[in-house]
Amino acid sequence: MTFKKFSRAGLVALAIGILLGLALSLPTFDASYAQAPAAAPAAPAAAPAAEPPPPAPACDPKMQINCTPNSGDTAWMLTSVALVLMMTVPGLGLFYGGMVRKKNVGDTIMTSFAITCLISILWLICTYSLAFRAGTPFIGGLDRAFLQDILSDISAGIGNPNPLAATIPETVYICFQLTFAIITPALIAGAFAERMKFSAMLWFIGLWAIFVYSPVAHWVWGPDGFLAAGNSDAMIKVLDFAGGTVVHINSGVAGLMCCLMLGKRTDSGPAHNVVLTFIGASLLWVGWFGFNAGSAVTAGMQAGMAMLVTHMATAVAGFTWMIVEWMMRGKPTVLGICTGAVAGLVAITPASGFVGPLGSVAIGAAAGIACYWGCTGLKHMLGYDDALDAFGVHAVGGIVGALLTGVFAIEQYGGTAGLIEGNPMQVVNQIEGIVIVFVYDAVVSLIILKVVDLVVGLRVPPEVEREGLDLALHGETVQ
Fold it and tell me: What's the CATH fold of domain 71-474?
């Protein structure tokens, strides 16, 4: 590379330009760099003080109107929304997709995605209002149908929060609870995988969300639900911090009803890709921190304890399942330890806001053993074909967790004492709640399945099942 030589006149002009630039920049130097600074000039007259901003409007403690959200709580809940949505798409889709045979992978992941879309639309129309707005002890009202009348005054920084989450905007609470409403029916799909019509699945899931999920969520979590621990007028106060009854027993029992109505698969085979299942289980584990710690609806001490016990129970359950499987079958498997970890996540869900670390260890160990039996001994004994163990993991794990919540609840952590602190009635309350949800869910799910079967049919033809649902129902195959 060569450089063009500058002429003498050009160099002189460059030097003059540099000197001129330095001269012009001198006034901008700070006086503190001078050797003998000049006396400071007299301070200018003070400007008149600006009027203080108007105070934020006070939140009515009874009606929860005109409230200014807490930014820390809101930030945590926004994060939790993303974490819990990730549990279904892609988490659950990958977890289930790896366990089915290759010819049905596309239908399995499509089911998770389609349910996410369907439930979101129904949530806007009516199911949020039916589940989480005041109404009767058995169902909410319709004052938020089509998500109407939500106050979100950005200019004034105020809104009318849901009384169940007073420190965050109602819009954020709607999104958070929506993610629970999405994953619950998506879990059911593990029971009927590889043999249910896609159209029948959409009809069943939509009706189930309206007639099962919404009422049960209102009973346990609604402001006036008859099983809600936070309702002073509740008939039975059931402790369910993040969804042992509402999510897991509910989905597991519905899955069992699907198994009974559909019958066994014509053929079955081993999981086609345990790596997908491993990735899905890992996403579920991470997302579950939003699921459980997010259910505190604040970024405070209860959220911290919920996160800690969630992790410990999951680790213990996964390790326990691995040891049991090793003893019973001679080899530990990837599928086994992943399923055990999910069982621990399920079981700690109702207890996560009420128990301490030692209680979480006991719950995790119990879940690992009980869910292993539920996915092997119980299934073989009763003879149903639960393809991906929705009942064995979610119903059995949910029941174990709900019962042990009544045993290990610590008043200091969650405000309610359990059996170990001298309150045996809480165990009775938990049993009553489990039975009520189990029976209602079973009966209504069977009715919905029967209606759908009469209208569109539930099961694909045998030749479609042999060929694979991907190509027959969706015109696609996974290579």
Answer: Ammonium transporter fold (1.10.3430)
